[in-house]
Amino acid sequence: MSDKQKLLELISQVETICPQQVDYWQTMAVIESLGYTDRIIQEEFGFADVKTVGEYIYRQHQPAPSLPKSKLPISNKRQAISELLTFLRQFFRSFVYAIPLLTLLLLGNTQPEHSFKFLLPQLAALFTIATLASLITSGGFVQAIARRGEFYLGLGFSVQTRQTSISLLGLGITATTILALLGLWFGFYRGLFADEYLVIAAGYYWLLSILWMELAILAVQWVWGTPITLVSLTGLFLILKLNGLGASEAQVVATFIITIALSIFLATLFKRQAIANPADPEVPLPLMSATVYLLAPFFGYGVLYFAFIFCDRLVAGWAVSPASGLIFAIDSAYQRGMDLALINFLLLVPASEYLAYKLIVFWYEQATAITYETIKLLSKRLLHRYFLVVGIAVLFFAVAVTITVGIPTPRPWATANLWLTSLGCLGYLLLSVGLLNAIVLFSLNLPYSVFKSLFPSLLLNLFIGYIAANIIAPEWAVLGLICGSTLFVLLSRRQVLQAIHNPDYAYYLGGY
């Protein structure tokens, strides 16, 4: 056998053992494991030593570099238009979630004096509690459904996506049913409200909770499904409202109809998917204990997030004076002012998501070419980009507040209580900056850092808001929102800056 044939045989053996060679040192190790020494290499192949033949085989193993493809230069104008379209597409996909609240605020602001009102104040208070409680208690399941569903969908496992969504929906319905029954038992035991009111409110809470979780499933299956559903809910509400129903009655009827229709639609969609894809791979789901461990931080974040947003409303409602004869009631001026502040927050959320996305994209693009010598330079660039992103978010919020507060209306919704709206906007601005930090941390696979930042902030929000609402006045519960949001910004910002100061480790920890 000639030296060339022997060398080809050696190359074949090396590639069989190690198809993907990292460097020539690994190639040398494989050659030595086959029993070749420097003396054998010199006698049989004519190379000086194992290192020389290892370098030769490693170079031969590497694919020839492909010629760079010529690309048409993209003008700055076209690039700016493309980026603007990307922002608008992502912004309006998230902005649609603010449409129901914006509609209610507009109707409440222009509501004529002779409109029909069928609900007693006690039942209206229960509906408010039920709405806020449904968002808080279902928020964890919404996050779990979204995270797990998108994970399996990204892998192309449609069967597991359906199974996981249905399983988590079942757990959510079970949990909300138990909570609804516990709320009924507590209400009956304490005699806080009339029994029939408690039954109606518990049913409404249960119905709303199912609707939020079904919307999370729909968002995984169909990107535009949730926006279309919310627009349909708003349209149906308007039709019922204009036909003489009060705002609360129209909201209950519209929610019931949309929830039933959405349940039927999802059942039909899952059935058609099962028939259309009978050969989908059957991959067993992980144990429930493993699923709980993986989703625990996201579940906790979903619950804490909505609890934080509405903590001031709950505190202000419970701080109502007993002389009013009501157990829970939110002043209409306070409700209107905080709703306007919340709309500005909902406007900033999609902008914050987009800005955080751009920061992470820049981070990972730079990290692919990082060296030990350029780590400090990358850290400095990321720090500048982070503060730029936060500054843009603050500027965007300031423009949004200027526009919304300055809109002329038949009955001014903000100028009647401008200081409250301003404090609410400040609190939600700080919360949105904390949310931007949270999105960055989630992208870096640091969900527990988000949880550890949000949980003490919620406790501070509750503590300060409770003291201020009971000692000064109920509307001063907004101070809890401001203090809690400030703490959330500081804690989450510290976690982000730690990651920026160690960008290589954060990049590795994120699994990229």
Note down, in words, how this protein is organized:
This protein has helices at residues 3-17, 24-33, 38-45, 50-61, 76-95, 99-110, 121-155, 158-190, 195-221, 225-242, 247-276, 288-318, 332-367, 375-405, 418-443, 447-471, 478-501, 503-509. It is an all-alpha fold and 512 residues long. The chain is elongated, with a radius of gyration of 29 Å. It starts with a helix and ends with a helix. The model is unreliable at 64-73 and 110-118 (pLDDT under 50).
Sum up the structure in keywords.
mainly alpha; 512 residues; 18 helices; single chain; 78% helix
Mean pLDDT: 78
| Portion in strands | under 5%
| Computed structural class | mainly alpha
Major sheet: none
Low-confidence stretches: 64-73, 110-118
Order of helices and strands: HHHHHHHHHHHHHHHHHH
Quick one: overall form? elongated
Termini gap? 47 Å
Question: Helix content range of the residues, please?
Answer: over 70%
Q: Radius of gyration, rounded?
A: 29 Å
Number of helices: 18
How many beta-strand elements? 0
Short recap of the structure:
By secondary structure, the protein is an all-alpha fold.
SSE blueprint and pairings:
Blueprint: H1 3-17, H2 24-33, H3 38-45, H4 50-61, H5 76-95, H6 99-110, H7 121-155, H8 158-190, H9 195-221, H10 225-242, H11 247-276, H12 288-318, H13 332-367, H14 375-405, H15 418-443, H16 447-471, H17 478-501, H18 503-509
Helix pairs in contact: 2-4, 5-13, 6-13, 7-8, 7-9, 7-12, 8-9, 9-11, 10-11, 12-16, 12-17, 13-14, 13-15, 14-15, 15-17, 16-17
